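A quick word before the example. In earlier lectures we treated sequence and structure as two separate objects. From today on, think of them as two lines of the same record. Here is Signal recognition particle subunit SRP68 written that way.
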Amino acid sequence: MDITQFVVSSREKALLYGNYSTYRTQLAHRLLNIRKRLRVATRHRGKYNHNANGIKAEQAAENVGYVHLQLLTAERAFAQAMAMKAAHAANKKGITGHTRSHIVSRLDKAAKYAVHLSDVLEQETSGASEGDRLEARAYAALLRGAAAFEKQAWELCLANYAAVWAIYSALSSSAPTRADVFRDLLTDTLEPSLRYAAYQLKMPRSKPIPVIASEALTLAKNIAATPDPAVLVSSINKIDPSVLQPKTPATADGIENLESAAPGTVGGVVASTRTLTWRSREVKIEDAAIASAWAALDLAKARLEAQLIAGGTRMAPKDKAAAYDDVLTVSQDAVDATKAAIDDLRSEGVSQSDSNMQLLYIARTAANYEMISDRIGRNRVLTGEHDGALAQAGPSVAKASRKGGKKSSRQAARLETPGRLLARLKEKVVLYDGTLQSLETVKELPGVAADVELSEQLDATANYFGALKALAIARSHTLVGNATNALALIKHAHDECMEASSSLKAARGDRSSQAEDSPLRTIHVSVADIDFLLDLLQAELQRARALVDIEKQQPLTATAKAGALTLSETLGEYPPGAVDLDKIVTYPPQIQAMPIKPIFLDIAWNYIDYPTKTRGVAAVAKGAAGKGQTADPAASAAGKPSSQEQPQKRGWFGFSR
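And the structure line, produced from the sequence above:
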């Protein structure tokens, strides 16, 4: 009968280009047409038959149109309620008491039609399957839950929505063809409504939805079309027993045996979902969300390890890094779960010294540590083999020549250009910087600074990646011809690697030995990686010293002499080597650009009047008046010099015109 598919498709078609008022109008026309086909429509100017909407089990078995008649009648009442709710949603006062009661009455009417349909399909003569009966129950409970939501009867609302969630979750696993319809209803409508009803009932936010639904069905007393909730629970368990249970590593994603999902791994990889081990300290986890997240994290790591073992050396670094995405997502979920649990306890007024709060802080530190460790492992995979210690020149590029528009069989291979090599080294340096920043973040986690052994390991790990970063920068200097800078950087990398090697070998433990055997890359650096890098740096150090000695002993070429600056131009720098007495000054002299005063300043000088010049003109005019001479008032007023003054120089650069 596809009850859910019929209802969902009807709503989507109407709401695609309209609203609930449009949906109600369409339902009225569809009801009239289906009544005419079933010959139960009211004649013109005839008396309305109230029993026309009632159907019997035999009618449902003969023609599915009678089932659709019930569904369309219930949907019309539901559409009227939603249209009134949408019309008053923009009102500042909200939905008033009279409007709310009207909406509730329409939803109750829709629920009555749905309950009647469910009761009819429960009869054997209706010919309905078990899935059809469950869908009819779910539709009735959905409408009853909506009415309880508007009445703010949260216990009734939670019980009905829990029944709908359980039914649709079970049907989504048993009916793959319609799984998308059920999942959309679960994620868009049911789960937010369940969470809100649980919030109104003061339930913890960290409680998983399967646990909420199971408890609500156990304590439920009034579920639409369900006289006995235990019968409904048993029907759901027959279809899928894992619906009303929290996800565990054995049931996540349909995997029942971890060893089959991760061949080659130890069966004890997935720890208990209630106990967390962090730095030889066992923490009992009371929160179900944190336990489920940790179990999912263990399972994701087991899958990743199996994928890396199966791929082997054939997998490219980018493919290996992409395989870490699921682990990073699950580890972030574990961090979010611990943070949510801590926030809930803070909102309840629990003090920091409480034992539950302290255990949650340890779990939060462990979750953040695992997330950052996986992030560092992804960066290590991206850098390449041996954490990018080897100089990878990259594959040769085949350059094909073409003649007459046809591909020639001759192909000339060329090596990768220095620019591409520098770009690769720059990418490695960026990854090393991200790793070093992640290590600094780990040091700031609560409880890490007080752990002396862990702090020493983190410092040694930072020295290891600092040595790799210095090695990559030294190789870039070697490519551009700066052998001296490359030698200094390699010497610095060698010193840091020596310090890291001594610290990590002294603090080697069981977990580091596991890191050597496992293909997973994490924050833990194995002793083999450190020994390999140390041997490589010793060889690179000898090579860099040889290059510097060769460069010092090799005389300057004529081209280098011609391009070098003279000693007179570099007096502010100390000469790195011997002074070339042939390049003291430039000889023969050449015409070169020199810094001078801009021309516009000379032009502006001709139009600037200074106070000293004005006072000088006034004194000359006063002296002439005392001697009986007549001064030119216009010239004095304008500040112009008299005939006895020295004429001002004008023109370019002070030359008179």
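Notice the following. The chain has four domains: 3-239, 272-385, 418-553, 599-654. We will return to this example when we discuss secondary structure assignment.
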